[in-house]
Design brief:
Belongs to the FGGY kinase family. Keywords: ATP-binding, Glycerol metabolism, Kinase, Nucleotide-binding, Transferase. It catalyses: glycerol + ATP = sn-glycerol 3-phosphate + ADP + H(+). Its EC number is 2.7.1.30. GO terms for molecular function: glycerol kinase activity. It is a single chain. This protein is of the alpha/beta class and 498 residues long. Helix content is 34%, strand content 21%. It is built from 16 helices and 21 strands. The strands form six sheets. The protein has a seven-stranded mixed β-sheet. Strand 11 and strand 12 form a beta hairpin. It is globular, with a radius of gyration of 21 Å. It starts with a strand and ends in a 5-residue tail after the last helix. 54% of the residues are buried. Bound molecules: adenosine-5'-diphosphate (ADP) and SN-glycerol-3-phosphate. The site of adenosine-5'-diphosphate has 19 residues, from helix 10 and helix 11.
Length: 498
């Protein structure tokens, strides 16, 4: 009998394939970064064919590491950067344009146009989302309007739309030879085209945005057997799909109402399980689908999305050449006692939750002749912690639930300076689990639940274990002083661009 479950984790910066055992521990990992393409200010693109090639390569790498064969895998799950938007030709399998990455702001003018009639929240009740360049619907409209011939072919079903999950499943299940054109409810809930209550594409929104239904994938649950993989996973059931932030919610075993996690990757995303009805936000959070297992009811979540977290560390590395590797930031930041008065607001794609200000732009404030690159490194890490505090404050206001601890995961949580500062600035303990690859784990759980590899969520809760806990150690007056400075810097960054 197969002893493992595999998960493809296709993130903003890299693709991974991780093999897990029944205890939810990692058996082997393949990982490969892909190119970030920035053709103009505000534009962020990925080459979807490179992503597919990397996905095949990392599957091979992880299997080879332990001499595994496809038959050793009971199922595979897929989790992905959400919202990133792609169209391709059903007959050739070729993308018609680079994928528009979730951070891409080129549709801002279209957002403004739609907001003129009814405001930014006109689709909130149906979709849980404000009008913003972040989501897929208007990105898809841009592609259909700007790629010659795309709209006509989309209307006849010859051009297909997908987020990265859909693209990977289509390729994995045969591509031009009859690949499945599907997505799951969590990814669909990020398009701004799905109605949160019917869990189907919303005809009114499709007609408002002028999107032909024929190019959209079928919406399925997050945990069921969708088909069998071909290629280097031939015969393995594909049985789980979750957007990466929802996958982390599942990987952190947040199955009870009120349980929450915060994932620190390229961006930073806090999700709280809010149960079986959509929970509206008055404080700038998103209402989204958390997961839906098989024919069970959908479970919803409140989400605080932060566009730039680890991406700021990458920017210091790649654009300023301040560090060689992302992990060097901790040593540099630790070489000084504090931020030396420097504050960074990384509003590179505007500011998401709770501000939703697309005209905000990044700034570095508080500079004096005293400031060094070490102070900037420290301020860069602190920016993630301050943004998380804004989101947690919004969660508390919206739900009345006061957090007793924050479960963390993602690539940045190896940074212990950040973890301590996070606990200090929240005045809430921060907990890191043994497995921080919770995104991949969540997708593996979804696939393993569908195929009976795991018996149910109780078994998954048993798998969760603490690695380390940080308790708040900052005095209240210092915390409030630092927060006031952060709020001042944010107010200066808002409405910067025309
Ligand atoms: N030691 C570190 N300290 C701070 N940030 C880090 C560290 N190691 C990695 N990162 C950041 O974490 C991010 C990668 O995390 P990951 O969860 O793999 O992201 P994603 O899924 O968005 O591709 C990168 O933006 C990188 O700069
Ligand atoms: O790939 P990540 O981890 O940066 O996550 C991206 C999010 O899904 C965007 O909504």
């Amino acid at each position: 009998m197969a002893q493992y479950v595999g998960a493809i984790d296709q993130g903003t910066t890299s693709s991974r394939f991780i093999v897990f055992n029944k205890a939810g521990s990692i058996v082997s990992v393949g990982q490969k970064e892909h190119e970030q393409i920035y053709p103009r200010p505000g534009y962020v693109e990925h080459d979807a064919l490179e992503i597919w090639r990397n996905t095949q390569a990392v599957i091979q790498e992880a299997l080879a590491q332990k001499g595994l064969k496809p038959q050793d895998l009971a199922a595979i799950g897929i989790t992905n950067q959400r919202e990133t938007t792609l169209i391709w030709d059903r007959r050739t399998g070729k993308p018609l344009h680079n994928a528009l990455v979730w951070q891409d702001t080129r549709v801002d003018p279209i957002v403004e146009d739609f907001a003129k009639d009814g405001g930014y929240d006109r689709l909130r009740d149906k979709t849980g989302l404000p009008l913003a360049s972040y989501f897929s619907g208007l990105k898809l409209r841009w592609l259909l309007d700007n790629v010659p011939g795309a709209r006509e072919k989309a209307a006849s079903g010859d051009v297909l739309f997908g987020n990265i999950d859909t693209w990977l499943v289509w390729n994995l299940t045969g591509g031009v030879n009859g690949g499945c054109h599907i997505t799951d409810v969590t990814n669909a809930s990020r398009t701004q085209l799905m109605n949160l209550r019917t869990l189907d594409w919303d005809e009114e929104i499709l007609s408002l945005f002028n999107i032909p239904r024929a190019c959209l994938p079928q919406i399925r649950s997050s945990s069921e057997v969708y088909g069998e993989a071909t290629d280097n996973l031939a015969g393995v059931p594909i049985a789980g799909i979750l957007g990466d932030q929802q996958a982390a919610l599942v990987g952190q075993a947040c199955f009870k109402q009120g349980e929450a996690k915060n994932t620190y990757g390229t961006g930073c995303f806090m999700l709280m399980n809010t149960g079986e009805t959509p929970y509206p936000s008055k404080c700038g959070l998103l209402t989204t689908v958390g997961y839906r297992f098989g024919q069970g009811k959908a479970v919803y979540a409140l989400e605080g999305s932060i566009a730039i977290a680890g991406a700021l560390v990458q920017w210091l590395r790649d654009n300023l050449g301040m560090i060689e590797k992302s992990s060097d930031i901790e040593t540099l930041a630790r070489s000084v006692e504090d931020n030396g008065g420097v504050t960074i607001v990384p509003a590179f794609s505007g500011l998401y939750a709770p501000h939703w200000n697309s005209h905000a732009r990044g700034l570095i404030g508080g500079l004096t002749r005293y400031a060094t690159k070490a102070h900037i490194a420290r301020a860069a890490l602190e920016a993630t912690a301050f943004q998380t505090r804004e989101v947690l404050d919004a969660m508390t206001k919206d739900t009345g639930i006061i957090a007793t601890e924050l479960r963390t995961d993602g690539g940045m949580v190896v940074n212990e300076l950040l973890m301590q500062f996070q606990a200090d600035i929240l005045d809430v303990p921060v907990v890191r689990p043994k497995v921080i690859e919770t995104t991949a784990l969540g997708a593996a759980y979804a696939a393993g639940l569908a195929t009976g590899f795991w018996s149910g969520t109780d078994e998954l809760v048993q798998n969760w274990a603490v690695d380390k806990r940080w308790t708040p150690a900052m005095d209240a007056s210092r915390r409030e002083r630092l927060n006031a400075l952060w709020n001042k810097a944010v107010s200066r960054s808002l409405d910067w661009a025309d």
